[in-house]
Design goal:
Immunoglobulin-like, five-stranded antiparallel beta sheet, 5 domains, seven-stranded mixed beta sheet, mainly beta, single chain, globular
Length: 718
């Protein structure tokens, strides 16, 4: 949670700023409240039906920083819950008035937990320094706890937080759920205990995983301690089932070149074969694979529900080639192996894929070998002759590298509409150095179109042609005939002038912005790399750009930006030092969909939808404090094990240091880092503390992995 607010035009307006439906924390953002003329201001907050969280954090401000630069804002204008030095979010506990005060720095926010689909009215009283939230219902103090898990045989429904049949009963101080007889397989099951039928609060943070030794009928008892959050699961075998038929295991994954159809466990051809040693094996020979990752799971049966591993198995293919692939699976210990033996390495290749079928033979098929391009003088070329086309025929296509849609050009489909019916010779070229695609439809019986001034013969006239033409003339070399702008038969300085006039007259080639998503490597495959074309977004017919990725293991929130034309200096959103934060409710495997609308209002420009598709095995993470060397003895070193935090019985991690001499106005900044890597670190903006008085201090830092809350305590000793 990023908490900061400011301004330049004090008392001109009152703004409410926050996360979720308020659009995000931005020093030049905020939502102007409606003045009522009596010193009060109101704003309505609507929580969407598909909101990722129903908790709304917010503060008020009578000023904003128009520059968008946090470093220039004056923190005294922020109206928040405290003037102390510890970030303490304060919960709205009633619909009555609550006091506010000026609060410089990152000193907390107010928040309330609402209901999806409901609208709430926030009223701020500037004269009396108070506010209230109307329509808010205070949280209930007695909770309902429900068991929700993977086994439909056990729970009736899979991962249903609203199935009241699975509500727990309070017995001797423990919430208890039991079933007298249920069939369980050796695959076991996983579950959570959910509070008030809402996934917003569920235990444990990673799923509780229960193994089962034998296939059979079991009595199962699950208990939950509300105070300690401790969960127990006791399966008691009532009757063993001797399996006469071996279970079926299937491999499902990507790319389609290996698995036929991506992530489809229903394919019979991907069933594994059981050996005499009990090990299951699947092989596929002479498969054409391109350099990159292969990802897959081993699925019990032909439907998702029980699969291994919880996060995808990832293997790397180092070079393009034909491979013999073997995958093995041991159901006893769930061990998986992957082996790809190279038969023959191959070079990069490019294929035209598009529509209609009458031109391309098969619609939108990057593996259609007949459309492979030919390398000629550094350019890849595809030619189709004697094509009968009717007027109005719409043609669209892309050039695809190595038959894999992850790398293709242009970002939007190349589109062309035939004006006159006739017989055409079609030529498509691709420049692998510039990624430029050209399309030339020459109608038979007519002279080919000559682009005057097209010095590099790329298919369009650009500023590069002016530069190249000048170099040609100065060097004394013979310029190409295509540079003969006035068709005089030779290339002269007049052609340079004519070419410049041509460009300035409005015939400039259309250049559309390419948008790329950048972030940490664990999500995007490269570390904040705007040049990574694999993360280019795709433009839809409505002008909205999208980027998606499936099967991503997430252990917490991640951050990203959208960059224009692969260059930070051209365009970035959000602007400045802050990133867009994707809120991950719980650890797991997710499908990610990011949309970007460059024409939308600031708060609506980006959306990020996370769809959980699988679980991850429980992981005991390491948390480390990394920051300024005046406190931590190493400067922002996330791998410094001396600064690892210690986990308490309550699940809270602590780092402490006594005898710290600090001088007045000295600044301490830090983050809490997970597993010694910057992929996950809190808070999103650094924790900032300015020493109020020179002295020797005892410092304590606490971190709650469940809420991701960071607390800082500085106790002056002398």
């Amino acid at each position: 949670m990023m908490i900061a607010l400011v301004g330049l035009n004090a008392n001109a307006a009152i703004y409410i700023v926050g996360d979720g439906p308020l659009g995000g924390w931005a020093c030049d953002g905020g939502n102007e409240m409606t003045a009522n003329g009596d010193g009060t201001y109101t704003y309505k907050i609507a929580i969407a039906e598909d909101a990722a969280s129903t908790s709304v954090y917010f503060v008020f401000a009578d000023n904003r920083a128009a520059s968008g630069d946090w470093a220039t804002f004056n923190g005294q204008y922020r109206i928040g819950p405290t003037d102390g030095n510890v970030e303490v979010p304060i919960e709205v506990t009633a619909t009555s008035w609550m006091p506010t005060q000026k609060a410089g720095g990152d000193n907390g926010a107010y928040y309330f937990t609402g209901t999806k689909g409901q609208t709430y009215t926030v009223t701020y009283d500037e004269i009396n320094s108070q506010f209230k939230v109307e329509g808010y219902v205070a949280p209930i103090t007695e909770f309902t706890y429900t068991v929700a898990g993977s086994s439909t045989e056990l729970f009736g429904t899979a991962w249903s937080a609203t199935n009241t049949d699975n509500d727990m009963t309070l017995v001797n101080g423990l919430y208890t759920w039991s079933i007298d007889r249920a069939e369980l397989t050796t695959a076991g099951f996983s579950f959570k205990v959910v509070r008030n039928h809402d996934w917003g609060t569920a235990y444990p943070s990673s799923n509780y995983v229960q193994t089962i030794g034998k296939h059979g009928y079991y009595k199962v008892v699950i208990t939950f301690n509300e105070e300690t959050k401790e969960i127990t699961c006791t399966p008691t075998l009532l009757e063993e089932i001797i399996d006469e038929v071996d279970p079926i295991y299937t491999v499902a994954g990507a790319p389609a070149a290996l698995f036929g159809t991506e992530w489809t466990p229903a394919l019979v051809e991907n069933e594994m074969t059981k050996g005499n040693d009990g090990i299951y094996t699947w092989t596929k020979n002479n498969v054409a694979l391109t350099a990159g990752n292969v990802e897959f799971k081993v699925v019990l049966g032909h439907d998702w529900g029980v699969e291994y591993p919880s996060s995808n198995y990832v293997a790397t293919i180092n070079a393009n080639g034909n491979y013999n692939v073997t995958i093995t699976f041991n159901p006893e210990n769930q061990e998986i192996t992957f082996n790809a033996a190279v038969v023959e390495e191959t070079e990069d290749f490019y294929t035209v894929a598009g529509a209609p079928e009458a031109i391309f033979g098969a619609e939108w098929n990057p593996a259609y070998a007949a459309n492979n391009m030919t390398l000629v003088d550094g350019l890849y070329i595809w030619i189709k002759e004697d094509v009968e086309l009717a007027a109005g025929t719409f043609i669209e296509f892309k050039v695809v590298k190595n038959a894999n849609w992850s790398t293709c050009w242009p970002a939007d489909n190349y589109e062309y509409t035939v004006e006159e019916a006739g017989t055409y010779d079609l030529t498509i070229t691709f420049n692998p150095e510039t990624n430029e695609v050209t399309f030339t439809p020459n109608k038979q019986g007519e002279e080919p179109v000559v682009l005057r001034g097209d010095v590099d013969q790329s298919g369009h006239v650009s500023i590069d042609d002016v530069t190249a033409l000048i170099d040609y003339l100065l060097s004394g070399a013979e310029a190409p005939a295509s540079a003969d702008c006035d068709l005089s038969g030779n290339v002269s300085i007049d052609d340079v002038t004519a070419l410049i006039d041509y460009l300035l007259s409005g015939h400039w080639p259309a250049v559309e912005m390419v948008y790329t998503v950048v972030g940490s490597a664990n999500v995007f495959g490269s570390e904040w790399n705007p040049a990574d074309e694999a993360n280019n977004m795709v433009k839809g017919a409505n002008g909205v750009y999208t980027w998606s990725k499936t099967g991503v293991t997430l252990y917490g929130n991640f951050e990203f930006k959208v960059v224009g034309n692969h260059d930070w200096s051209i365009y970035e959103w959000p602007i400045g030092m802050y990133n867009w934060i994707a809120n991950v409710a719980e650890e797991g495997v997710y499908d990610i969909l990011i949309t970007f609308d460059p024409e939308a209002a600031d708060a609506d420009r980006i959306t990020c939808t996370l769809t959980k598709t699988g679980d991850v095995a429980p992981v005991e993470h390491t948390y480390t404090v990394a920051g300024t060397d005046n406190l931590f003895d190493s400067s922002w070193n996330q791998t410094d094990t001396a600064n690892d935090m210690v986990k308490g019985e309550d699940g809270i991690y602590t780092w402490a240091k006594d005898g710290c001499y600090l001088e007045q106005t000295e600044v301490i900044e830090f983050k809490v880092v997970q597993d010694h890597a910057w992929d996950y670190a809190w808070p999103s903006s650094n924790y900032y503390y300015e020493v109020a008085e020179t002295g020797t201090y005892s410092i304590v830092i606490k971190f709650d992995p469940n809420t991701q809350e960071v607390s800082f305590y500085a106790n002056k000793l002398f």
